[in-house]
Specification:
Elements (H helix, E strand, L loop, with lengths): L8 E7 L4 E9 L6 E9 L10 H22 L10 E7 L3 H18 L3 E5 H7 L19 E6 L4 E6 L5 E7 L4 H11 L7 H10 L30 E3 L2 H13 L5 H29 L19 E5 L6 H12 L9 E3 L11 H14 L1 E3 L20 E3 L2 H8 L5
Parallel strand pairs: 1-4, 4-5, 6-10, 8-9, 10-11
Antiparallel strand pairs: 1-2, 2-3, 6-7, 7-8, 12-13
The structure holds zinc ion.
Length: 410
């Protein structure tokens, strides 16, 4: 009998690792990239609190997650008669109390609907979400293929990762203190900005200042960490460092307690530009150190040979100025081939969301043919390069696999 594929199989994904309660539905046809059907997100308002407070996030998820998932399932007619075919949830890393809520909810749905369950690594979700075709690109735009480089910049993480396959990840640049997004948020708060997403507030504030004030001629003394005569050109370990930017801004404020609006504008511009310069500088050092331009750079180790794609994901990656600068300042470097492609996820997929959990869960299911069993617990610390080195993974039988993959066929 010839089977005609009517639609792809359906994947329900849940995420509650930080301060967003999220649910998403994706559809997947074998051989095609996943399609996002819909997503809901309810974010804890942090404007008054000024940072994540675990108890507040815990209460937020417990209050809203159940209702959010029920409303979402009703809207998409997901029920015992028409369940989704695969269920994914974030398993870690993060605060176990927050993660557990989605894990327990996902387990309940998996038992009730008799569908396989996948516990997903949160950062893998951020790294793989760029594989979805971006809305602003043509539908034929190719999704990145392994090996690729991914710059993950968010409020919780700052790293450049080399992904050779779904399970082979190498962290090339890590932070030795706080994350880029954390530093940006704290600096924005120091200069008097207010809101739920301070990085976005800072970007909008800078967008609206007159061009003549977009200059860095104030006495901020903000130098780039690890860049100076004493630092090695190609260090053994390449690191980001974002804590010093905040202390510089605090020092400046002490020296200038009453700054004019013009100075505040210049201060905001300088902060954002300098933090982005540091990110680009470290990525560039990594590109030279691990590139294949052996003749020009003695000590280059060719680790990046074959890399043709560069992905930027995470909340900070939603910043248009960072995207523009990465593209302009890295693209022209001689160590990147002309085929080097940049991929930036859609803006609404840069911050935490359940779509990315579904995307990563689908790839785990299809590529590795594994699922997570009901013994799954939340994982507080889960190294990205140890994806499979946790308990709870079990193989999927051929029959179970076919049932999911062909469930949209008629
Ligand atoms: Zn995240």
């Amino acid at each position: 009998m010839i089977r005609h594929l009517r639609r792809g199989y359906r994947v329900l994904a849940l995420e509650s690792s930080c301060d967003d309660s999220c649910v998403a539905l994706l559809e997947k046809l074998p051989g095609n990239p996943p399609k996002v059907v819909d997503q809901y997100k309810k974010t804890l308002s942090l404007a008054k609190i000024g940072g994540i407070i675990p108890t507040a996030a815990h209460d937020h998820h417990h209050t809203h997650m159940g209702q959010l998932v029920q409303d979402f399932c009703q809207k998409h007619n997901l029920n015992a008669r028409a369940p989704p075919d695969l269920i994914c949830c974030t398993r870690g890393p993060g605060m176990t109390g927050l993660l557990s809520l989605s894990i327990q909810l996902a387990k309940g749905l998996s038992i009730a609907w008799e569908k396989p369950l996948i516990g997903v690594h949160h950062m893998l979700g951020h790294l793989l979400v760029a594989k979805l075709p971006a809305k602003e690109k043509s539908p034929e735009a190719l999704s990145p293929e392994y090996p690729f480089l991914s710059l993950l910049c968010s409020g919780g993480h700052s790293m450049l990762v080399l992904l050779k396959s779904l399970t082979d990840h190498k962290i090339i640049v890590d932070t030795n203190d706080i994350a880029a997004g954390d530093s940006i948020d704290k600096c924005a708060r120091e200069i008097g900005l207010y809101g739920n997403m301070l990085g976005k507030e800072l970007e909008q504030y800078i967008d609206n200042i007159p061009q003549e004030n977009k200059i860095s001629n104030i006495d901020l003394q903000m130098s780039l960490p690890f860049k100076g005569p004493r630092d090695e050109k190609y260090p053994k370990t390449i690191l980001f460092s974002f804590a010093s930017f905040l202390s510089r801004v605090q020092l400046f404020k002490k020296k200038h307690p009453d700054i004019s609006e013009i100075k505040r504008q210049k201060l905001a511009y300088t902060i954002q530009e300098t933090i982005f310069s540091h990110i680009i500088d470290r990525v560039n050092v990594a590109l030279v150190k691990h590139g294949n331009n052996l003749k020009k750079h003695q000590g280059a180790d060719s680790q990046f040979i074959g890399v043709k794609n560069f992905i930027c994901s995470g909340g900070v990656a939603a910043n248009k100025r960072l995207r523009e600068r990465l593209f302009l300042e890295l693209h022209s470097k001689e160590n990147l081939g002309t085929e080097f492609q940049f991929h930036f996820p859609d803006l609404d997929l840069c911050t935490d969301n359940a779509v990315m959990i579904g995307v990563a869960g689908i790839e785990i299911f299809e590529t590795l043919k594994i699922r997570t069993d009901l013994s799954m617990t939340a994982i507080r610390k889960w190294p990205l390069d140890g994806l499979l080195e946790v308990d709870g993974w079990v193989g999927v039988s051929e029959e179970e696999y076919e049932n999911v993959i062909n469930s949209g066929a008629s």
